[in-house]
Specification:
The complex is a heterodimer of chains A (377) and B (458). By secondary structure, chain A is α/β, with parallel strands linked by helices. Helix content of chain A is 43%, strand content 15%. Chain A folds into 2 domains: 171 residues, Rossmann fold, CATH 3.40.50.2000; 181 residues, Rossmann fold (3-Layer(aba) Sandwich). Chain A has a 6-stranded parallel β-sheet with strand order 2-1-3-4-5-6, with helices on one face. A 6-stranded parallel β-sheet of chain A has the order 9-8-7-10-11-12, sandwiched between helices. Chain B has 458 residues and is of the alpha+beta class. Chain B has 17 helices and 7 strands. Strand 6 of chain A pairs antiparallel with strand 6 of chain B.
């Protein structure tokens, strides 16, 4: 039995992947379960700080924060029933669950979905003693790996092409969503879909758009939701709204959870998709955009570089000006943009669909018991 | 008294007797003439059933002339009309019975000759003989009833119902039987032919029975196709088997998971130092993973070292030198590693070591853990091999061409080794070995192999 443990059933890429992955594992005859840890809002504020600092952002983390984290973790360790043959722990929030390994044995995997290429050393040093107790760690990009005494694997996340967020939509559905959010179709649309999070650089997106808007008449749609384990998003939303300053060509949309068809429609209605993140675990919104054969401009961070092969499957950028320049190139060269979009779709077809993800998880379970480089079945 | 009657009526007796004897003699003569003519025809057309026909007809033929003699004798005699009528009916009945007996015998022998050719088993032959017997007996009975004036309508209704029931039961079998006979006669498809149906099934025909045709597929499973369907499909017949291999080729496939070593390099010195100590599987990964990950796009004969040096360090000259390393030229990973190390060290010796990658953009050393999986595809000859080649996954193609040659250290791709060792197709094996697989997309490579093999088969 595979027991998955994370911090939330809704919101964010981890919950989304698990909700799609588990039924497929079940269909393959793998008994897969999913548990979440419990925690107070204060606990999740601390884990959010961990998240930000692991991504490299400066945050003030006190000894009290670490104590609170350990205290709530201890509570979860005591209360959660651990009955999986393989215990698959996702992200730092439940990382301490491995403390029970000595007591119960089993195989333990830590699946890190976030960009830990340049983590805050204080937080990383705090987490590392837990991480090294696992049998293996899994990262979403090569640069996230560290010198660790355990085996580390690279498994990219994935999208489900048949889900509401990625399935084909009729033009009528797309138009109705645009109508609902009062987005006219009179100009090219640049879209970023992401949570309201500083790491997604929403203000930077607006600045890039304003630079493009000087020479090309277009609209910006910034649409996102919030995750239950992210207490910061409302503050970011307020700042973004203030920065947009009532510009009629900028549409800031707070999309409620379970609005997958609407996100799908917004992506399909877009001329170009942008993902100007400062840090990105993998960037599933980029995968979604590529699957829809949309030209993409994205920051060269984290797992995005696995998806956007510069000038082949999209354009990579490193700053606000670079993003604006890339957007202008795509808006003024629709044929080139279409070619990039088609390549992007093929790249996702072969490398980032859930079937590949499922296969790699199965191989990971297999590799836990086979230390050699070539395994003959 | 008796003598007097004979003297008075000698003519009334003599004529019928003479008529009877005349029929007997004519019968003997006609039988001989027909026998000789049939024997000549049989030896000319070499029909296996001709002997059976002659043996079956020999006795009854004379018997029928005797019956004819009795009927004529009775008709020319002075017996009462009632006696004549009864005798004629009796002789008619005898003729019908003997003819029925002949038909049963003859068809029994012909079925024993022909049904085994359709691979029909003994229970089927016995069933077919019994069906013919029953049919003949019923038909004879009906005719005899008619001769004697007995009403046959109720019996006919009963028979019609029985035939209808039988037709319903055999509605599927009958078309297959006829299709089997057609296949057998036309020889369009024979045992041993390699056929491909429009529905995709393919393989060697191992048996054509009266009901279905068995095909041994590429995965060694047996496909059973009803004969009737076989005639309806478009079938490509590649003809007889080609030369069999000493050992069949068993296709394997390969999938992999990427393992991170945790080792990173931020400049050329660190890159080359790490390159010297990492295992071969790391060299293999960084010079091959693009083949699978980007096979849909273009052949990309490059390697991660060249891309990183060029794109992240901005060392375009070194990037070009590394990109131009032809992986195909190297017999093993050790030699390939050595070449890459020499190129970087030569560049460093020219005094170019200043550039460093941005934080987070270091070169990350990785390796792949391969999982080799058996596939159901097995080839015993070139036809099976090329057809399997069309069907195998790209992972399988990749394994036999790239992984086996360099990572497993076999020196040659698996196809060439099999063609030369098991099939003695040295020239074809060499042609395949000469093909540089790094300059093709995987689908392009598959097409190139298929083209070479098809050319050889023709």
């Amino acid at each position: 039995m595979i027991q998955n443990i994370n911090s939330t059933f809704t919101g964010g890429g981890v919950a989304e992947i698990l909700s799609r992955m588990l039924p497929l594992l079940e269909q393959l005859g793998v008994d897969a379960r999913w548990n979440t840890i419990k925690g107070s809002p204060e606990f999740f504020q601390v884990t959010k700080k961990f998240h930000n600092t692991l991504h490299g952002r400066q945050e003030d983390i006190s000894a009290t924060d670490f104590d609170l984290f350990l205290e709530v973790s201890q509570q979860n360790i005591r209360e959660m029933e651990l009955n999986g043959d393989i215990i698959f722990v996702h992200d730092p929030q439940p990382v301490t669950m491995v403390s029970r390994k000595k007591e119960i044995g089993r195989r333990w995997i830590w699946r890190c979905h976030i960009d830990v290429s340049q983590p805050n050393q204080k937080v990383w040093s705090f987490l590392e003693p837990f991480i090294v107790q696992y049998d293996a760690a899994v990262f979403s990009a090569p640069s996230f790996s560290h010198h660790l005494p355990i085996r580390q694997y690279l498994i990219s996340p994935s999208i489900d092409p048949l889900s509401d967020k990625n399935k084909e939509l009729s033009q009528q559905t797309i138009d109705s969503v645009l109508e609902k959010y009062a987005i006219p179709k009179d100009k090219p649309i640049i879209t970023q879909i992401s949570r309201f999070d500083y790491l997604k650089d929403p203000v930077g997106v607006i600045q890039s758009f304003e630079m493009v808007r000087k020479s090309i008449d277009c609209r910006l749609v910034f649409a996102g939701g919030t995750a239950s384990d992210d207490p910061e998003s409302e503050k970011v939303l307020a700042e973004v709204n203030e920065r947009a300053g009532g510009n009629p060509d900028i549409h800031i949309l707070l999309i409620p959870p379970e609005s997958d068809v609407e996100i799908n429609a917004l992506q399909r209605a877009s001329t170009v998709i942008v993902q100007k993140s400062h840090r990105e675990g993998f960037g599933l919104t980029v995968t979604e955009a590529l699957w829809k054969a949309k030209p993409v401009v994205a920051s060269a961070v984290g797992g995005i570089t696995l998806q956007v092969k510069n000038k082949f499957t999209g354009l990579l950028s490193y700053g606000i000006e670079g993003t604006a320049y890339a957007l202008r190139r795509l808006l003024t060269n629709p044929e080139y943009a279409r070619w990039l979009g088609q390549n992007g779709r093929e790249h996702v077809r072969y490398n980032f669909l859930i079937t590949r993800h499922l296969r790699e998880y199965m191989l990971l379970f297999l590799a836990l018991d086979h230390p050699q480089d070539i395994i003959y079945l | 008294m008796m003598v007097e009657w004979l003297i008075d009526n000698w003519l009334k007796i003599t004529v019928p007797v003479l008529a009877f004897l005349g029929c007997y003699v004519v019968g003997l003569w006609v039988r001989r003439v027909i026998h000789n003519a049939f024997e000549r025809w049989g030896s000319r057309v070499r029909w296996q059933g001709s002997k059976s026909v002659m043996e079956a007809v020999h006795r009854p033929f004379l018997f029928w002339f005797l019956i004819l003699g009795v009927v004529i004798a009775i008709q020319v005699s002075v017996v009462t009309p009632e006696v004549k009528s009864i005798t004629t009916r009796a002789m008619g009945s005898l003729f019908v019975l003997s003819f029925g007996w002949l038909v049963i015998n003859l068809f029994g022998q012909l079925l024993e000759i022909y049904l085994p050719r359709l691979k029909a088993r003994w229970p089927t032959i016995t069933l077919a003989k019994n069906v013919i017997r029953a049919t003949v007996v019923i038909v004879c009975a009906l005719i005899i009833f008619e001769i004697w004036g007995i009403p046959t309508s109720p019996l006919l209704v009963l028979i019609a119902v029985a035939i209808l029931a039988a037709a319903l039961v055999l509605r599927n079998a009958a078309p297959n039987l006829f299709a089997g006979l057609h296949l057998s006669n036309t020889q369009q498809i024979k045992v041993g032919d390699y056929i491909k149906l429009e529905t995709g099934e393919q393989g060697y025909v191992t048996e054509i029975s009266w009901h279905n045709t068995r095909i041994k597929a590429l995965d060694e499973s047996i496909i059973i196709v009803p004969n009737n369907r076989l005639l309806q499909f478009t079938v490509v017949n590649y003809g007889h088997p080609l030369k069999k291999a000493i050992e069949p080729f068993r296709f394997q496939s390969r999938t992999y998971i990427k393992e991170l070593t945790g080792l990173k390099a931020k400049n050329l010195r660190e890159l080359v130092d790490t390159l010297k100590k990492v295992p071969d599987s790391v060299i293999y990964y960084h010079t091959h993973h693009f083949l699978e990950e980007h096979h849909y796009l273009i052949p990309e004969p490059s390697n991660d070292f060249a891309i990183w040096v060029n794109d992240l360090l901005g060392e375009e000259v070194l990037g070009e030198r590394l990109a131009s390393v032809n992986t195909f030229e190297f017999p093993n990973l050790g030699a390939l590693r050595e070449r890459i190390v020499v190129i970087i060290e030569n560049h460093l010796a020219e005094g170019c070591n200043a550039r460093e990658a941005m934080p987070g953009r270091e070169f990350c050393f990785m390796k792949s853990v391969s999982v080799v999986i058996p596939t159901p595809y097995v080839a015993h000859d070139l036809r099976e091999f090329v057809e399997a080649l069309r069907k195998i996954s790209l992972g399988s193609l990749y394994f036999h061409v790239f992984e086996s040659r360099l990572r497993l250290g076999r020196g040659l791709n698996d196809f060439t080794i099999w063609l030369q060792d098991s099939l003695q197709e040295n020239e074809l094996g060499e042609e395949i070995a000469r093909l540089d697989p790094y300059t093709y997309t995987l689908e392009g490579l598959r097409s190139a192999f298929i083209q070479l093999i098809e050319k050889r088969i023709q």
